[in-house]
Design a protein that fits this description.
- Helices cover 29% and strands 28% of the residues.
- It has one domain.
- The protein has 94 residues and is of the alpha+beta class.
Length: 94
């Protein structure tokens, strides 16, 4: 995977490394006090409620999870084409 410097910088601001596995990224965020956003969680089924990312379907499926810490929100996006779910994007929430 190739990432731009700005993409890497955003991830680094959250102490994350792009292409890292879902479990590693989620563990780092949890240790930093981030939790699954309860408002976001209301829209999804049991998969998200078990702490797993919500994934699309198809050949190039992507997965995401929205986390919250205080009033801050961040969306982590993972590739669903690999069982490790590598991190492919970090977007501060609105």
């Amino acid at each position: 995977m190739r990432f731009t410097d700005p993409e890497r910088s955003i991830a680094a601001a959250f102490h994350l490394r792009l292409a890292s596995p879902y479990k590693e990224a989620r563990a780092k965020m949890t240790r930093s006090g981030w939790v699954i956003d309860p408002e976001w969680l209301k829209d999804f089924d049991a998969e998200a409620k078990q702490g797993l990312p919500v994934c699309g379907h198809g050949w190039d499926a992507i997965c995401h999870i929205q986390l919250k810490k205080g009033k801050e929100v961040v969306v982590l996006t993972f590739s669903g084409t690999n069982r490790a779910y590598p991190l492919i994007a970090v977007e501060p929430g609105k």
